[in-house]
Design a protein that fits this description.
about 70% helix, Ion_trans_dom
Length: about 250
């Protein structure tokens, strides 16, 4: 019983260090800052086309740290999902951050890369290491909270944007049949126009098509501004709530 209690206590402490970053917990803060430095270091080799001995060792050391971090979080999943019990260990690998962690680890496992062509393709997933930084971003947590609270309004905007894109593509595909090889090209044009990006690779040539293109551009500004305003307002409300809690 003493051994079991000791193991549970040790696992709980590991969970507190790797998953809960309290200001008063120096070990947790040190772990978070260390992992951030390791993540930044792991990105350096990806920024260069060529490789050398230094980059190889950086990749090996950082992936070892990522593997240990993944294991620590997995074996303490029951503390994260308190109501799930033993199912927590089955649920954790399918959580968003666990998937990101796994995708950032697999490309660096050279033993697998040498044996299977599939894992050679996974080297492209090294860019997922950048996303690991989001785990330690409080601003990202705030944005996620805002999205969850404002999901109904954001979904309504998404439906509006999707309907407008489909309608614009259908109209333009009918007005400018020679400018689009397929309906997908019309969808692509509508998305680019809606977001006011305007790559210029596909564009209307007739007067009627150009007039409709101008109208679509103005409508796009209004539709794109809606989710921006919703998220900004929600973000400010979350910041105010956090400040009020801190002042109490």
């Amino acid at each position: 019983m003493v051994i079991v209690k000791g193991i549970i206590s040790m696992r709980k402490r590991i969970y507190e260090i790797v998953d809960i970053a309290k200001k008063t917990d120096k070990s947790s803060s040190i772990y978070d800052y260390t992992m951030l430095l390791i993540i930044v270091a792991s990105i350096v080799p990806v920024c260069f086309k060529t490789s050398n001995v230094l980059f190889i060792w950086i990749d090996r050391i950082t992936v070892l740290a990522f593997i240990l971090d993944y294991i620590f979080r997995w074996v303490t999943a029951d503390f994260k999902f308190k109501d799930k019990g033993a199912k927590s260990f089955l649920l954790y690998p399918f959580t968003p951050f666990a998937i990101i962690d796994l995708l950032s680890i697999l490309p660096s496992l050279t033993a697998l890369n040498m044996g299977f062509k599939l894992f050679r393709l996974l080297r492209l997933n090294k860019v997922f290491k950048v996303l690991k930084i989001l785990r330690y971003s409080k601003s990202f947590d705030l944005i996620l909270n805002v999205i969850m609270k404002e999901k109904q309004a954001l979904l309504a905007v998404c439906y509006l944007a999707g309907g407008y894109i489909s309608l614009s593509a259908l109209i333009m595909f009918s007005v400018e049949p020679d400018s689009f090889n397929s309906f997908f090209d019309a969808i692509y044009w509508a998305v680019v126009t809606l977001t006011t990006v305007g790559y210029g690779d596909i564009y209307p040539v007739s007067n009627l098509g150009r007039i409709f293109g101008m109208v679509s551009s103005f409508m796009g500004i209004a539709i794109v501004a809606l989710p921006t305003g919703i998220i900004t307002a929600g973000y400010m409300n979350e910041l105010n709530r956090s400040d009020n809690k801190s002042n109490r």
